[in-house]
Write a structure and sequence with these properties.
about 450 residues; five-stranded mixed sheet; 12 helices; about 80% helix; about 10% strand; rod-shaped
Length: about 450
């Protein structure tokens, strides 16, 4: 898990974790140093106990060596005697140095030292008499019990010293046990607290995760609902667009028929009437040039009106589309446009099978495309291509004009939007490709009409 994300979500987690880690480290180190010091003290006490034992063993070795020499006169027994005295003196020096600051131990050591010196004097006196040839007197001194009494007192004092050292050792051991117990309890408490904090954090994280999942599910449900509503709205808009386009084309057709049948008939009748009047004026009223001139102007006006009416009718509903088909209609459209604008046209048109509604859409798209070319493209050439492949009719209009950035389409390009809506309403697709200085390509794809193919 990312620590930065955890710290941002729960600002207290990282500081608390650091505090817990520092507390565990402090407790561990403190307990270690106290235990280490206590163990050192216990080792020192154990060493002093050994030294105390060496004091007694040295005196016993000296006494044993002295008696062996007195009994056998063998000087080999003097070696353990001398070594025992040296060991006891060394042990006494160590104990005096260690316990010199303790009044009770100092008193006890002083008494032990007195007994030791007295015992040494007795041992030395017996050996001196033996060396002087007074062996019987030396043996009598040994048998008198003076040495035994001194050794018994020395043993008692040394036993007391060992007991005191044992008590000190036991106290240090109890202290060590206490340190270890406190350390164990403290570490256990810290670990338990850390585990509790971790449990609470994981529990809070789980709750937050569940809330996040629930929020995501709610958002997904809302998104799905919005998508369904958007899809339904899009479908309704598509159907409405198709209905409006169909109604618009039907209305255009009706207006074209009305203009052709009614207005065309009226204008043609007026033109014939003007021609009859003109012929009668010429025959009945010779020399009326002004009237004839007015009639000629009237006939020209009627001819212009008839031509304008035909143009309006063709714009509303091209008659060639119904009479000749889509291919000739497109050829006539682009060639008339090219002649009017002085452009060069390249047509590659193949027969296709489209429904009447799709044919009028193709015608309107091509008409809108050439209108845009005349307004904005500044083109010199136009390429018009139509073909049918695998049940799909493709129509493209391309120019070599200034082009535009197709990724940034201005909001005012309602012509492109209208063309796209027309094509998508019929179940097709429209694509616009253009780059500045590289012209524009408008391509539409529509499903072919299977009925016409049959």
């Amino acid at each position: 898990m990312n620590l930065l994300a955890v710290a941002k979500r729960s600002p207290l987690v990282l500081p608390l974790a650091c505090v817990a880690a520092l507390a565990i480290m402090f407790l561990s180190e403190h307990s270690y140093w106290r235990a280490s010091t206590t163990l050192d003290d216990m080792a020192a006490i154990a060493k002093l106990k050994v030294t105390t034992g060496l004091l007694l063993v040295g005196m016993l070795d000296a006494e044993t060596g002295q008696r062996g020499y007195l009994l056998t006169a063998d000087k080999a027994y003097l070696e353990p005697y001398v070594q025992g005295l040296k060991d006891s003196e060394a042990a006494m020096g160590v104990l005096s140095l260690e316990y010199g600051g303790d009044q009770y131990f100092s008193t006890l050591l002083a008494h032990i030292n007195e007994l030791q010196l007295a015992k040494k004097q007795v041992l030395a006196q017996a050996l001196a008499w033996a060396d002087e040839g007074r062996r019987e007197q030396a043996l009598a001194l040994v048998k008198s019990g003076v040495g035994k009494a001194q050794m018994d007192k020395l043993r008692a004092d040394i036993a007391e010293l060992l007991q005191l050292e044992t008590e000190r050792f036991d106290r240090q051991r109890e202290r060590l046990n206490l340190i270890l117990t406190v350390s164990r309890i403290g570490l256990a408490a810290l670990c338990a607290s850390s585990l509790l904090a971790l449990f609470l954090y994981l529990r809070q994280t789980l709750i937050l995760k569940q809330q996040t999942l629930e929020s995501r599910r709610t958002l997904q449900d809302d998104r799905d609902q919005l998508q369904d509503e958007a899809g339904l709205s899009t479908l309704m808009l598509t159907e409405l667009t198709q209905h409006l386009l169909t109604a618009r084309e039907d209305e255009r057709g009706r207006l074209a028929r009305d203009l052709h049948d009614e207005l065309g008939a009226l204008l043609t009748s007026a033109k014939l009437d003007a021609a009859r009047i003109k012929s009668r004026l010429v025959n009945l009223v010779p020399g009326a040039p002004e009237a004839l001139e007015r009639l000629a102007h009237l006939v020209g006006t009627l001819n212009a009106s008839i031509a304008l009416g035909r143009t309006i009718i063709e714009d509303l509903r091209p008659s060639t589309l119904s009479n000749l088909g889509l291919l000739p209609t497109l050829e006539i459209l682009v060639r008339e446009f090219a002649e009017a604008k002085g452009l060069q046209v390249h047509c590659e048109l193949q027969p296709v099978e489209l429904a009447s509604g799709a044919e009028i859409i193709v015608y309107r798209v091509v008409q809108e495309a050439v209108t845009n070319i005349s307004k904005y493209a500044q083109a010199r050439q136009i390429w018009l291509k139509m073909q049918q492949v695998d049940g799909v009719v493709t129509v493209s209009v391309r120019d070599d004009g200034v082009g535009f950035d197709s990724e940034v389409v201005p909001r005012s390009t309602y012509g492109l939007l209208g063309m796209r809506m027309r094509v998508e309403a019929e179940g097709g697709q429209l694509q616009v490709s253009s780059n500045p200085g590289q012209g524009t390509l408008i391509q539409i794809s529509l499903p072919a009409c299977s009925a016409n193919l049959a």
